[in-house]
């Protein structure tokens, strides 16, 4: 089925560890983005990309890196995980004025 | 900057009750407005949208009208079901910032 695929669904990290959250879409959307969801705060934009080779920061970019080497993939990297990064992460792509969200990655940093 | 404010939850209703979830926004220009729904353990799904003033979005018995004069986009449903239990997010698309801006979300629990 066409859509946005995120892996993994769950992850537990120790403070200081690094990891990459994967996001792939097969709808040929130029725009992709990463959000984090925290209780009482809705979804906040971390980084976004308007096309391969182009990325920009959102509201809460600190502690996260992104790159966009292909239209399909938009990985999110945590270089040194901190407990404050415990959250649910959603990848989304945009095409035709509508957003499609992945099913999320629940990350716990201990 | 642009922002969205939603009524706080949780909202608890009995089946067949009337639902209203308030949403107001602050934005420059005329943003597109959305309601998203998140069922337990799932991602966000678009519920309905409106792209200009006085537009009414509707889907699955839910409705919301884009009111420019009150900068509001309240979600309503005439008769809720247990299956409507979820978290509902109001959002606007900010062209100036090229991003979707969300409210805090409202949890709805519907009991038989």
Quick structural gist:
Chain A contains no helices and 11 strands. Chain A has strands at residues 4-7, 10-13, 19-25, 31-37, 43-51, 54-57, 64-66, 76-78, 87-95, 98-101, 105-109.
Biggest interface: A-B, 22 and 20 residues
Shape of chain A: globular
Mean model confidence by pLDDT of chain B? 93
Shape of chain B: globular
| Main β sheet profile of chain A | 7 strands, mixed
**Beta-strand content bin of chain A:** over 45%
**Helix share, percent of chain B:** under 10%
What's the N-to-C terminus distance of chain A? 35 Å
- Counting copies of identical and different chains, the oligomeric state is heterodimer
Ranges of chain B with pLDDT <50 over ≥5 residues? Answer: none
| C-alpha Rg of chain B (nearest Å) | 13 Å
Roughly how much helix do the residues of chain A carry, as a percent range? Answer: under 10%
- For the secondary structure, the number of strands of chain B is 12
Number of helices of chain B: 0
Question: How far apart lie the N and C ends of chain B?
Answer: 41 Å
Helix and strand arrangement:
The complex is a heterodimer of chains A (110) and B (112).
Chain A (H helix, E strand, L loop, with lengths): L3 E4 L2 E4 L5 E7 L5 E7 L5 E9 L2 E4 L6 E3 L9 E3 L8 E9 L2 E4 L3 E5 L1
Parallel strand pairs in A: 2-11
Antiparallel strand pairs in A: 1-3, 3-8, 4-5, 4-9, 5-6, 7-8, 9-10, 9-11
Chain B lengths: L2 E4 L4 E4 L4 E3 L1 E4 L5 E7 L5 E7 L5 E4 L2 E4 L9 E3 L8 E9 L4 E4 L3 E6 L1
Parallel strand pairs in B: 2-12
Antiparallel strand pairs in B: 1-4, 3-9, 5-6, 5-10, 7-8, 8-9, 10-11, 10-12
């Amino acid at each position: 089925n066409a859509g946005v695929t995120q892996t993994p669904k769950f992850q537990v990290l120790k403070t200081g560890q690094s990891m990459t959250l994967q996001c792939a879409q097969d709808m040929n959307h130029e725009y992709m983005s990463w959000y984090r969801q925290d209780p009482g705060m809705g979804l906040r934009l971390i980084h976004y990309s308007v096309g391969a080779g182009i990325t920009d920061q959102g509201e809460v970019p600190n502690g996260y890196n992104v790159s966009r080497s292909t239209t399909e993939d938009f990985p999110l990297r945590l270089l040194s995980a901190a407990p404050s990064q415990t959250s649910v992460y959603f990848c989304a792509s945009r095409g035709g004025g509508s957003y499609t969200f992945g099913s999320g990655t629940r990350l716990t940093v201990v | 900057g642009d922002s969205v404010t939603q009524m706080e939850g949780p909202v608890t209703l009995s089946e067949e009750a009337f639902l209203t979830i308030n949403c107001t926004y602050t934005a420059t220009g005329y943003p597109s407005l959305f309601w998203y729904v998140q069922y337990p353990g799932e991602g966000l799904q678009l519920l309905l949208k409106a792209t200009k003033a006085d537009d009414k979005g509707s889907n699955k018995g839910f409705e919301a009208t884009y009111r420019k004069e009150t900068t509001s986009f309240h979600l309503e449903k005439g008769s809720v079901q247990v299956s409507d239990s979820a978290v509902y997010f109001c959002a606007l698309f900010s062209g100036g910032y090229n991003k979707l801006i969300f409210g805090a979300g409202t949890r709805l629990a519907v009991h038989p």
